[in-house]
Design brief:
Layout lengths: L1 H4 L2 H4 L3 E3 L8 E3 L5 H15 L2 H4 L5 E2 L2 E2 H24 L11
Antiparallel strand pairs: 1-2, 3-4
Helix pairs in contact: 3-5
Length: 100
């Protein structure tokens, strides 16, 4: 049921052809996990869809108007979310080994 609710581009088979190595060869690419996609969407939602919560000047936070503080805060939070998504997706993250 959840699979059918996903957009069509998320359900498509993923394969990339590397013509420079072997013509006709296909390299399979791992699909991102749902957790990694959700972590990637957190900054997007925080900046784009929560405008009614941060669209104001007062209160001032750290000498910045609140809306400027909110955007700077998401500039700091976004790499943390991307790091979390990377940690979920990197090879060997499930078996406890450390992959480079």
């Amino acid at each position: 049921m959840l699979y059918s609710a996903l957009p069509f581009w998320f359900r498509m088979p993923v394969a990339l052809a590397h013509e420079d190595e072997n013509p006709g060869s296909v390299v399979r690419v791992k699909r991102p996990s749902l957790g990694a996609v959700l972590l990637g969407l957190i900054p997007f939602v925080g900046i784009c869809f929560l405008v009614p919560f941060w669209d104001r000047i007062y209160p001032m936070v750290l000498g910045l108007p609140f809306n400027m503080f909110w955007l700077v805060l998401w500039i700091v939070i976004s790499p943390l979310c991307m790091w979390g998504a990377y940690r979920l997706e990197r090879p060997g993250s499930g078996d406890g080994s450390s992959a480079p």
